[in-house]
């Protein structure tokens, strides 16, 4: 085992501990704040965001003709993850620029930010999957991406359940329904909205929304990228491709 792989396993164990911890007092307080904030937002805005999110996720992950990289094969983990981090950096910059522009326009452009940022996140997951050597033409691999998305943008309680599902993925993927409409879209949408609303609502304020939008988008891409790295490390470990 190389020093890099040993460090990757150490980071993976720390991440696993974080995924399994119980929700704390801060999480409960944040949840109450989220519910209160949501009560001030018109229901039609919430419905518009939810509808746009579902359509984009289904369109990007399960639509025909979506272009992705070919799976990267027969390279060391350090090389793979070097390229993965390069992709994350690219999407961080793109998301920050997009958040700054839409944030400067107040609520109208701020609402445009949601589907744009969502598209960047999903494309990043496509690229990361290919760099770890997985072919997203396989329906099951695209469902795995959905679970990574859930893992990154969910409450601690829901995150723990998703993690346990991914930790047994080789068995779980055999139980997947053929119809993607059987996926629990409601949980995915609600958890994602609740996770980002508190951070993103300030972006809707004209002028100051620009720097806030840039920072928040950058951090959300960072969060997704690190989650994907560890989710694929976990999978490599379970497949016996990353061992101490």
Radius of gyration from the CA trace? 18 Å
Query: Structurally, how many domains make up the residues?
Result: 1
What share of residues are in beta strands?
A: under 5%
* Global outline: globular
The percent of residues in helical segments reads: over 70%
Low-confidence stretches: 104-108
Largest sheet: none
Helix count? 10
Record field, number of beta strands: 0
For the terminal residues, how far apart are their CA atoms?
Answer: 7 Å
Oligomer: single chain
**Mean pLDDT figure:** 79
Structural class computed from helices and strand pairing: mainly alpha
The ordered string of helix (H) and strand (E) elements is HHHHHHHHHH
Highlighted features:
244 residues, mainly alpha, globular
How is this structure best described in words?
This protein has about 240 residues and is an all-alpha fold. The protein is about 75% helix and about 0% strand. The chain has one domain. The protein has ten helices and no strands. Helix 4 (about 75-105) packs antiparallel against helix 5 and helix 6 runs antiparallel to helix 7 (about 155-165). The protein starts with a helix and ends in a 6-residue tail after the last helix. This is ABC transporter-associated protein EcsC. It comes from Pontibacter flavimaris.
């Amino acid at each position: 085992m190389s020093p890099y792989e040993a460090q990757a396993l150490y980071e993976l164990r720390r991440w696993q501990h974080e995924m399994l911890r119980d929700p704390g007092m801060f999480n409960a307080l944040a949840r109450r704040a989220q519910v209160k904030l949501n009560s001030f937002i018109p229901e039609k805005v919430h419905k518009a965001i939810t509808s746009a999110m579902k359509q984009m996720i289904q369109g990007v992950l399960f639509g025909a003709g979506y272009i992705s990289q070919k799976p990267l094969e027969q390279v060391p983990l350090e090389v793979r993850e070097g390229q993965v981090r390069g992709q994350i950096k690219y999407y961080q910059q793109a998301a920050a620029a997009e958040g700054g522009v839409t944030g400067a326009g107040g609520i109208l452009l701020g609402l445009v930010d949601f589907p744009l940022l969502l598209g960047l996140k999903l494309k990043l997951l496509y690229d990361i999957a290919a760099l770890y050597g997985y072919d997203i033409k396989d329906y099951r691999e695209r469902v795995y991406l959905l679970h990574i998305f859930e893992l990154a943008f969910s409450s601690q309680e829901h995150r723990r359940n998703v993690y346990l599902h991914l930790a047994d993925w080789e068995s779980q993927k055999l139980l997947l329904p053929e119809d993607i409409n059987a996926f629990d879209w409601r949980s995915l949408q609600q958890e994602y909205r609740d996770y980002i609303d508190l951070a993103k609502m300030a972006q809707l304020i004209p002028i100051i929304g620009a720097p806030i939008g840039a920072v928040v988008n950058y951090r959300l891409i960072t969060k997704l990228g690190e989650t994907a790295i560890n989710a694929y490390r976990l999978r490599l470990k379970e497949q016996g491709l990353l061992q101490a």
